[in-house]
Amino acid sequence: MNLADIGPASGQEVRTACCYCGTGCGVIAEHDGRRITGVRGDPAHPANFGRLCTKGSALHQAAAPGGRALFPELRSARGLPRRRVGWDSALDGAAERFAAIIREHGPDAVAFYISGQLLTEDYYVFNKLARALVGTHNIDSNSRLCMSSAVAGYKGTLGADSVPACYEDIDHASHLLIAGANPAWAHPIVFRRIEAAKRANPGLSITVVDPRRTETAEFADLHLQIAPGSDVLLYNAMLHVLLWEDLVDRDFIRDHTSGFDALRAQLAECSPGAVATACGVPAERIVEAARRFGNARAALSLWCMGLNQSHHGTASNSALIHLHLATGQIGRPGAGPFSLTGQPNAMGGREVGAMATILPGHRDPANAAECAELAALWGVPALPATPGLTAVQLFDALAEGKVKAVWIACTNPAHSLPDQTRVRAALEKAEFVVLQEAFADTETAPYADLLLPAASWGEKSGTVTNSERRVSRVRAAVPAPGEARADWTIAADFARRLAQRMGRSADGFAWADEAAVFAEHVTLSAGRDCDMSGLSHALLDARGPQQWPFPQGAEQGSARLFTDHRFPTADGRARFNPAGFPQRHALLPEPVDARHPFVLLTGRLRDHWHGMSRTGKVAGLWGHTPRAEVALNPADISRRGLRAGQLVRVAGRRGAVVLPLAADAALAPGQAWIPMHWGAATLAQPGANTLTSPATDPISRQPALKQAAVAIAPAELPWRAAWAVATDSAADAVARMAALQPWLARFAYAAQSLVGRTRRVLVLQVADVAAPDEALLHAIDAVFECTAQQAPLAYRDARRGIAKWARVDQGRLAAIRLVGESAAADWLVAAIAAGDPADSLRSWLFAPLAEAPQGLATASRVVCNCHGVSETQIREAVAGGADLALLQTTLKCGTACGSCLPELRRLAAGAVPSATGSPA
User: Fold this and answer.
1) Within a 13 Å sphere around the CA of 329, how many CA atoms are in the beta-carbon half?
2) Looking at residue 414, what is its pLDDT?
């Protein structure tokens, strides 16, 4: 593709890339010079060809200024509030603190924890700062939490972290094996391509491996609903079948691989019959899955967090890749092992080497020759000899006092890391915490001694690399708000100040612009498997996104790798690398028992992203999943005498959370499900990661975030209250949410959320064993502008502790306060969002009715965000005889981004919907 043939986006428009998942969609951002006013998919971008999912379509709404960090803030001592300071004072103070700690305790007493949402240029500067200037390998990324097992799996089998396939292979495959991923929700644009491939080729066979019957699993021809953690057993059993039925490519194995005989000798105990019980899948279905793969003309596998976030994630990745090596399904159209990255630039961070266990250009910090080569390129005597700390290790070292200072950039460890109790204690103990962040209202922000405001999406320029190794330009459309700066410039400015205090040269951090940073970065890849030395900002601007390898002098990149069946290993062969071959490994990171009988699964939703610091500010993105819940199979709910909707306490070995209970037939009995997105910014407790295990894979050091053992019991919280208010703007809603956040933990249960499309409504629901003090209630009243003085409509029952009132503006209900009893909260919130006339509500305002009276607005989950179509509307249309085509014609649902299509198919078929999400 040559962008010169297409021309630039017209007028006040900028071509850039999405900041959410690793699909890497191209976006055209419309702006007025001050703010981003709209977005649409870039039809010229080969990752999405103009399509965007619900999150991408709302990028301009998420770019509103609410909740932003606007200027540096510093506190002189713990317990004191931060105060505004200038950039010079902020960075000079940080340099003094880091230099003093390094002098007294050595370079490994400081650490950097960065993010797969940084641009490649940002990543590169931080990495050079840590390793070449400070002299520590203590730099890790939150990509450790999502993709490090895929990195280790690729390196152990193919010789390098080089994803061999591309999106185009979906169009050429005859069989798709989707493992531990729900692209229908987590990578919707990839799933649109899968749907299109199935339409074009009805013979395309799709197998999905997932503990839940997700939207992707419903689309499949074969769903293996495995027991959590049994992935290695399953893929070894499939390989056993391939051998037994001679569905392997013996010539490929002989000519292009090593280690097969040793692996084959260990497969005897992995027959389908031997592992079926542990896998929770009948042996004949394992055989069927193996035959589908082995008989395929071209087999492509796709996987994501379900495979990676495990204490044996490297072994799971290796076992899946072995299926490709045994059948020769690699290096040709439609075939290969293809990991889907979770973050927009996780791949760029892997190229840059900005993780403790990798170096730039896919070099290995344990390889002395490669370390010496990099030191020479950077002009330093040597790289540090001590191995770096990975994410969980890093925060353990903070808790133990071994690491004194940590610089956190563009990530939220007080939400995303496992075992939140220990992580938060570590942040409390640290001597100095720097948070470089675009948003001042994340869960990590209260722990920051120094808060540095960073530019966000739409405000900075650089590059990202998506799942298929495609490098795209990210461009600024508008200036950053306040005093916020681009991440790389903050890191480089700090490096120059630190170098002065360390008596070192700062010349290596004097780049003129981000293009110069990128130019230096790509020179380090020359001659490596990820050679990008032929790329530059100028080339990407002229010719559009490009895939690597793209060496100097190349005309185009490589869509597929290993087409010559030569691999970047010492002997040029791929390796069967069983990674310990744990056929008797513990399936779960911690056992279930009588006290903790449920396996908790965690994962992502369709319309939210990570900790919701961005998507949580867009009311429309709450419509599909209005609140955090814990889901159980209906049989478990019945057997334990529970009921959907009641509050339950989910308790693990490290903590507990209180959430409403939901029924979800997509779960197997004995499993529970909580989405990862909600944390202490919206709940009384830090969410799912209060419960998750800090256990890590021994090779990749990726934590086992997918599973934990929990108990679930009723939460006896008789006192209830709810507030809601229509807000004027996103910024107003976000400011109110930030004001409420410190009070959420005062309740046993608390949840704040946003509702509405044309009229935005902030909602807070709380519960406890008894009423809190009146001062707290009145403070909350003030945030909702629904005090006794402001609300003319009131009802009190002092004997029962009930006090309700409502405020009306211009004839419409504007705010409610229901204290002591709140059964009507949901439908009253729906009435506020709908702008219903107050006169129609007056008779029912304070009635303890859980269902709306006939004729009034009712709460209903939004299925199609693009057109605001609710589940109730769809079900009514289906009851009237509508099929999917008629739903699309009459209601317009599923005709824009397409993210709702999997659920529309199910509703059109009359099936019961699953609850809230997917484990992958």
Assistant:
1) 32
2) 98
Return the number of other C-beta atoms located less than 10 Å from residue 254's C-beta.
9
Pairing of strands 671-675, 598-603: parallel
| Res 280 pLDDT > 90 | yes
Please, are residues 386 and 365 in contact by the beta-carbon 8 Å criterion?
no
Query: Contact at 8 Å (CB) between 25 and 52?
Result: yes
- Beta-bridged to residue 713, according to DSSP, are 649
What HEC string does 497-548 produce?
A: HHHHHHCCCCHHHCCCCHHHHHHHHHHCCCCCCCCCCCCCHHHHHHHCCEEC
Q: Are 660 and 627 in contact (CB under 8 A)?
A: yes
Q: Which residue has the tokens 């991923």?
A: 181
- Residue length, the chain? 920
β-pairing, 647-651 with 405-409? unpaired
DSSP state of 670: T
863 within 8 A of 903, measured Cβ to Cβ: yes
Residue 399 pLDDT: 97
Bridge partners, 546 (sequence order) = 471
- The pLDDT of residue 860 is 83
CB of 72 within 8 A of CB of 483? yes
* pLDDT band, very low/low/confident/very high, at 911 (cuts 50, 70, 90): low
Tokens representing residue 557 in the block: 């990149």
Q: Who contacts 526 (Cβ-Cβ below 8 Å, separation ≥6)?
A: 361, 533, 551, 552
Q: Which tens digits make up the pLDDT trace of 355-414? A: 999 999 999 999 999 999 999 999 999 999 999 999 999 999 999 999 999 999 999 999
Residue 440 in contact with residue 67, Cβ under 8 Å? yes
Determine the angle formed by the axes of helices 87-105 and 487-502, rounding to 10 degrees: 50
In 224-294, which ranges are continuous DSSP H helix?
231-244, 250-256, 260-266, 272-279, 283-294
Contact 920, 603 (CB under 8 A): yes
Q: Please report the pLDDT score of residue 915 as a whole number.
A: 45
Bridge partner residues of 683 (DSSP): 751
Mean pLDDT of 877-887: 91
* Rg, Å, the chain Cα set: 27
- Report residue 1's pLDDT band, with 50, 70 and 90 as the boundaries: very low
Q: Three-class SS string for 81-117?
A: CCEECCHHHHHHHHHHHHHHHHHHHCHHHEEEEECCC
49: its two tokens: 């060809």
Burial 21-44 (b: 16+ CB within 10 A, else e): bbbbbbbbbbbeeeebeebbbbeb
The band of 2, judged by pLDDT with boundaries at 50, 70 and 90, is very low
pLDDT number for residue 4? 37
Q: What is the mean pLDDT of the chain?
A: 94
Average pLDDT over residues 342-361: 95
User: Which pair of tokens denotes residue 786?
Assistant: 């629904």
Residue 498 neighbours by CB under 8 Å, 6+ apart: 95, 98, 99, 129, 133, 134
